[in-house]
Specification:
By secondary structure, the protein is an alpha/beta fold. The protein contains 15 helices and eleven strands. The strands form three sheets. It has a six-stranded mixed β-sheet with strand order 1-10-6-9-7-8. A three-stranded parallel β-sheet has the order 3-2-4, with helices on both faces. It has a two-stranded antiparallel ribbon with strand order 5-11. Helix 2 packs across helix 10, helix 2 (about 50-55) packs across helix 11 and helix 6 (about 150-160) packs across helix 14. The longest helix is centred in the C-terminal third of the chain and has 17 residues, at about 240-255. The radius of gyration is 19 Å and the shape is globular.
């Protein structure tokens, strides 16, 4: 796949649902006692977590009896660490880091496929000579963080192209948005593994990029909602309620008539992002990536195709990200809540 986009700066920080609830447009009054929960995500873009902020703004979590607090931390591994340490009851890691954590004995389970289409793309400068991943042999690939989900995604692509990390290419953590642009301008990296919140940004300044992600890898789904199994036992009502609110938020955001209101909810979550001229375009890109393909749309939002998990798992083994196959891959994820969420 080849497409053109611009890379611009994104902010980073702590976003708290409780602190912005009063700013949400049309938020209904709380109808019952609220249970506070921490929701850890690997980047601060409110638009990346669009259904969440819509669900906050429209009062869907309040109706479910929860008051979630969103914390943006640095990468999927940090999300999983926060969950393991009891600092977050629920989180949004990528599937690759989730597999790695499960292989290390962490009782994490992936519940909700938030991005059924790949959230990442492999990007190069528009005027570069690189046309395919194989052309990147001997080059440095920029990534947001050293252990983020984009690393396993890109490693799988380059393994498929016959390259091995360390021998044929290397990763360099360069952050996202503006800092990644600086790395390109200084020729520190030849390519960048960007998330949808990078790839969809069209700003007045920045770099014009091309996406060279192979078509086969666009089906590798991105971040989703996960909990520890021990946490699921301690709070059995959280997963069903959280997913119902997200599905309602996704349906609301997917209606073009609601775009301006949904953008306002996201701006309440991240005011700096809401002021940017790329927000409306980023919104469209997020909605597209969150919409299941025709093959799985009838399964409902949040559904995880077992064959996609198998492909991600097999790529992780082939690339060395997993030292050995996970014996029971079905233990890593569950679709048990999907029907109830979409009911």
């Amino acid at each position: 796949m080849t497409s053109t986009t611009r890379l611009s700066r994104r902010s980073f920080g702590l976003l708290t649902a409780g602190s912005v609830a009063s700013l949400a447009i049309g938020a209904p009054s709380l109808i019952r006692a609220q249970t506070a929960v921490n929701f850890a995500v690997p980047n601060p873009s409110a638009l990346t977590w669009l259904p969440y902020w819509v669900a906050v703004g429209e009062g869907y979590f309040a109706e479910e009896g929860f008051e979630p607090r969103l914390e943006a931390i640095d990468g999927s591994s940090a999300v999983l660490q926060a969950m393991s340490a009891g600092q977050a009851q629920i989180g949004a890691p990528g599937p690759g880091p989730t597999l790695g954590a499960r292989a290390r004995g962490v009782d994490v389970k992936f519940l909700y496929n938030l991005y059924p289409k790949s959230v990442f793309g492999l990007l190069v400068k528009e005027d570069s000579a690189y046309q395919t991943p194989a052309d990147l042999k001997g080059q440095v690939i920029g990534v947001g963080t050293a252990d983020g989900a984009e690393v396993s995604f890109t490693r799988a692509i380059l393994t498929e192209a016959g390259m091995a990390e360390g021998a044929d290419y290397s990763f360099l953590p360069v952050g996202d948005g503006g800092t990644a642009a600086v790395a390109f301008l200084r020729d520190e990296v030849a390519a960048y593994a960007g998330a949808v919140s990078d790839a969809a940004i069209l700003a007045a300044r920045g770099l014009t990029l091309r996406e060279i992600t192979p078509e086969a890898f666009l089906g590798f789904f991105g971040n989703g909602i996960a909990m520890l199994e021990s946490q699921m036992q301690a709070m059995p009502e959280l997963a069903p309620a959280f997913g119902r609110a997200l599905v309602r938020g996704t349906r609301f955001a997917s209606d073009p008539a609601n775009k301006e209101k949904a953008l306002a909810h996201c701006a309440a979550g991240n005011p700096q992002e809401g002021e940017q001229d790329y927000a409306a375009s980023l919104y469209d890109g997020v909605v597209n990536r969150m919409t299941p393909t025709e093959a799985f749309i009838d399964k409902g939002y949040g559904y995880q195709p077992p064959e996609h998990w198998q492909a991600i798992h097999d790529s992780a083994v082939a690339s060395g990200a997993l030292s050995e196959p996970i014996e029971d891959l079905a233990s890593v994820y569950t679709n048990e809540f999907v029907e109830g969420w979409n009911g």
